[in-house]
# Entry
Amino acid sequence: EFAASGRDWRTAPLWGIGLTRTVSGHTRFLHDGRARNLLEAVLWHGGEAEPARQQVLQFDAGQRAALLAFLNSL
# Structure
């Protein structure tokens, strides 16, 4: 976006994210690979994604499992 600063990162489309291990041989996420799995990738987000991150922090184990199952189905 035009208002993005050098501290902002574009989130890549999620299509095919469940195939990351099959295609790439790893499950490292974010621009620098610091997230070892999808849940870590979600929790590393801030900025405009902070409200969603806060919701995920409030999820119980079942809700987190459902979120990860959905993401892995993409």
Notes: The chain has a mean pLDDT of 88. The chain has one domain: 17-73. Residues 18 and 72 are 4 Å apart (CA to CA). Helices lie at 20-24, 38-44, 50-58, 61-73.
